[in-house]
Amino acid sequence: MIEPHAPAPPGAPHPWREGGQSHARLPVRPGTGRFLVLVGVFVCAACGLVYELELVALASYLIGDSVTQTSVVLAVMVFAMGVGSLAAKRLRCRAAAGFGAVEAALALVGGSSAMALYAVFAWTGDWGGLWSGGPRCLLVGFSLAIGLLIGAEVPLLMELIQRIRRQDAGGAVADLFAADYVGALVGGLAFPFLLLPQLGQVTGALLTGAVNAVAGGALVLGLFRRDLSRRGRRLLLAANLVVLVLLGTAAALVDDFERAARQAVYGDHVRIALRSGVQEEVLTGGTRGHPLDLFVDGRLRVGGSDERLFHEALVHPAMSDGPHGRVLVLGGGDGLAAREVLRRPGVRRVDVVEPDPALVLLARRDRALSALNGHAFADPRVRVWTGDVLCRLRHLRGTYDVLISDLPDPGITASTKLYSQEFYGLARRVLAPAGRLVVHGGPVTSRPRVFWTVEATIRAAGLRTVPYRVTAGSADTVGGPSPRPAGLSLGPRDWGFVLAGRTRPALTLDPGVPYLPAMTRASLRADARAAARTRMPGLPPSTLVHPRYTR
Q: Where is this region: Disordered (predicted)?
């Protein structure tokens, strides 16, 4: 602890001691030692921010609703950092040993966090409600532990840098925070542009933990080794070696781990798993009698057993009540909505706008998926654009007879803008006078507020609406939640749709097109009446600046 001394003459350095020594015994000049400490601050800050971003990204991917996950992780971590700073006051008398121990623990906890969270998710299933379930508690636990350790860094580093050369507290804090913030900048940029695309979440976190352990151990054992006893140096060296061995072993086994975890999540028939710059796509089945399933960011987008019913219900009511020569499909990179559009005679042009080019490439090249979509993208009437859907819609010229919105679920934060009043205003602008818009609004029964908010938002954009739904046979269907463990029965569910136009369109089907037995005009209208009974009046529309969708 810092010992009190008599007041010093004006301008003289304040005498102080730590562990009985007035100054650290360094193997280098004080200026060089101070620079090395600031380099350590820089590296540790970069690693700390990577851990933070990795937790946010993984939680958003596995749980969804990135706003909620970001808020939970950041709130818990900031709170824990304050607690960690207070707790570190007790370690100031052994600042070098304390800092070394903190960095070794932080490297192990932060480096292994992604693997541990993904493992629990893969082998326990869905994460449940906001605070329910072991996996979500584990997320909060990692946020708390990492925040405590990060919070303990600055007081200990402040003590170490003051041991090298005494300066006023304001100047020392300014130097430390400057190095800390620059390190955070580098870590914040490295995560999305280098670690995530090149290494992935698990390997990126393991590598960050190794860098953290090397930086913390080298700073203490290299610069402040004389502040430790021989036994203390050996213990710290052994602890860092154990951490590096554990992280290195995990990195060597990461491919086997991801393969096993992927099978636990998606089943034993995973054929393709890739991560583009936009999302992750996993393709299962499609061979030897196994139905083809396409998962996008952990959610089932194409269910081989039910996808035909979903896409018939999405496309054909909008195509059956007027002209349909020019069709715009928003989303639909799997080609299945385009397949249904092309079944109708009189279609002259189909424009598909898909945010992820990797999904389009998969739909073109994978034999099972391209067979399922009827090789729709090989049809000369189909043109595919990739990029931001809202931006593309904003710059479209001309009008369309039918606009089909085959986009991710409105409860996912990343897609909220695609269910906003502004988005539907742009859609209305490109609709022909007799044009129709159809939107998948999520399940009606389990999430009525979200569905009716979609409907209210479309009405707010100046369109007349006809909501309807189609009941599916199982929960593991298009747009459904994250996959559950095999064998868990979740019962029936439904898909909700909103058909809209400048004038109120008719909910009908063309009798000249063969449909599945479940798709009839009578069943469609009966389901529309059932959906109407769940209406929640008075819901405000969702806008870009005030999104109103909740999970």
A: 1-23
